[in-house]
Design brief:
The protein has 365 residues and is of the alpha/beta class. Helices cover 25% and strands 21% of the residues. Helix 2 crosses helix 7, helix 5 packs across helix 6 and helix 7 packs antiparallel against helix 8. The longest helix is centred in the last third of the chain and has 15 residues.
Length: 365
C-alpha cells in the first residue's frame, strides 16, 4: 500500500499540465474503466515452485492491480485521474479503494461497491527474470440503470481504453464526441484472426499503442516500422513499442515520424510496464510535447518501472524521474534535456514507495 503523504512533495508540486490549465477546462485529465484486482506479489524465489514442495519467498507485497496499474501510473505523473470500477465489499475491496483514493489521489466517484461480491485476486510469483500468475474472480453484476457509470463518461481531457476484437464500448464514442482524446492499446487476439476491422472503436482513437507483435499481426507486415505506417492510415498517431529496443511512432496529421531507443536497465519484473508507457505518452501528449520527447519520456517511465517488482507498486512518479535525471549517463543528457524545463534543480528523492506485506495494518507504520 502507498501513503500519499510519504511520496515526494515533488509529486504534489509538479503539474505537467500547469501552464495549460484554464478555469473552463474539465476537472478530470484522464478517465478510464476496467477491473481492479488485488495483487499479491511474492519476490525472492530462487526458482519456480516445485510440485509437492513448499517454497518460501524472501519478499512479499500487496497492491491494487488490473486497471489500477494504469490509473496509478497516470496519477503519479500528476494527471487528475478518474477511475470507474467495481469493488467488492470485502476487506480486499476496502483495501484497494483506500489505496487508490487516499494513497494515490484517484477520483473514485464513478466507482461502486457491490455488496456480497468478492474482489478479484491475482497472486504473482517472480523468479529468474520471469513471473507466474494465478488469478481468480467473477464478473461484477451489472449496475442498475441504462449505463455503466453515473455519468457516461465524465467530462475529461482524455480517456484510456483497451480495445478488443468484436467489442464496442459505447462510452468510448461518447467520450470522443464530448471532446476527449482517446488513447488505446490492445491485447492478444485469442481468436487468431487479427482483423483490424474488428476493432470498431479504433475510429474514435487519437492514438493507438500496440506492441510490435500485435501491430505486425494486425497489419500483415514484417517490420514494426511498416506496421506503424500502416496503422497511421487508420489513426492520427500510431505508436509501436519495441520492448527494450524502444518505440517508433508516426503522426499521420503532420507526416512526422520518430524513433527513440530504449534505456538499458536490469529488469526485475515487466508487470505493468506497458501501462506505465501509455501513461507517460498520455502525459507528454496532453502537455503538448514534441513526438520524440513523448516517446522518450514514455520509454523512461517504463524503464524505471521494470526495475521494481509489481504493477502499480512499480509505477514511477516525478521523484523517481528526478532522481534518474540527476544521475543520467552523459550519453543520454541531450535526448532527455527537455526534463530540465520540468524538474526543479533542487529536487531531491523522497521516501521510496514500498510494498506492505499485509492487506493493511491496523495502525500507521
Amino acid at each position: 500500500m502507498t501513503n500519499r503523504d510519504s511520496r515526494l512533495s515533488l509529486s504534489a508540486d509538479l503539474d505537467p499540465l500547469g501552464p495549460l490549465r484554464d478555469p473552463q477546462d474539465p476537472g478530470c485529465d484522464v478517465f478510464l474503466t476496467g477491473t481492479v484486482f488485488l495483487d499479491i506479489i511474492f519476490t525472492g524465489l530462487d526458482s519456480a515452485p516445485v510440485r509437492g514442495t513448499e517454497s518460501w519467498a524472501r519478499g512479499m507485497g500487496s497492491s491494487p492491480g488490473g486497471v489500477a496499474n494504469m490509473a496509478t501510473a497516470l496519477a503519479r505523473l500528476g494527471l487528475r485521474t478518474s477511475l470507474a470500477a467495481a469493488f467488492g465489499d470485502d476487506h480486499y475491496g476496502e483495501y484497494c479503494w483506500d489505496a487508490l483514493e487516499q494513497g494515490e489521489g484517484i477520483d473514485l466517484s464513478m466507482s461502486r461497491t457491490i455488496p456480497g461480491w468478492h474482489s478479484p485476486v491475482t497472486v504473482s510469483m517472480a523468479y529468474e527474470g520471469e513471473r507466474t500468475m494465478v488469478s481468480h474472480g467473477h464478473e461484477a453484476p451489472p449496475p442498475a440503470g441504462s449505463g455503466p457509470f453515473p455519468q457516461c463518461p465524465p467530462r475529461t481531457r482524455a480517456a484510456v481504453a483497451s480495445l478488443a476484437p468484436g467489442r464496442v464500448d459505447g462510452w468510448i464514442g461518447e467520450a470522443a464526441r464530448r471532446g476527449a482524446r482517446i488513447f488505446a492499446d490492445v491485447g492478444w487476439d485469442e481468436t487468431g484472426r487479427w482483423d483490424l476491422g474488428a476493432l470498431a472503436d479504433l475510429e474514435h482513437c487519437d492514438a493507438f499503442l500496440p506492441n510490435a507483435g500485435e501491430a505486425m499481426r494486425y497489419t500483415r507486415t514484417e517490420c514494426p516500422r511498416a506496421a506503424a505506417r500502416a496503422l497511421a492510415e487508420r489513426v492520427p498517431v500510431a505508436v509501436v513499442t519495441l520492448g527494450p529496443e524502444g518505440s517508433y511512432a508516426v503522426d499521420s496529421g503532420t507526416g512526422e515520424t520518430a524513433e527513440v531507443p530504449g534505456i538499458a536497465v536490469d529488469a526485475l519484473d515487466p508487470t505493468g510496464a506497458g501501462d506505465v508507457y501509455v501513461a507517460g505518452f498520455v502525459t507528454g501528449t496532453l502537455a503538448g510535447w514534441p513526438l520524440a520527447d513523448r516517446l522518450a519520456f514514455a520509454g523512461l517511465t517504463a524503464a524505471l518501472s521494470v526495475q521494481e517488482f509489481g504493477g502499480s507498486l512499480s509505477a514511477p512518479g516525478w521523484p523517481e524521474v528526478a532522481h534518474w535525471w540527476q544521475t543520467a549517463p552523459d550519453g543520454l543528457r541531450d535526448r532527455y534535456g527537455f526534463l530540465d524545463d520540468l524538474i526543479p534543480r533542487d529536487a531531491s528523492r523522497g521516501p521510496r514507495r514500498r510494498a506492505v506485506p499485509t492487506i493493511g495494518f491496523r495502525y500507521s507504520v
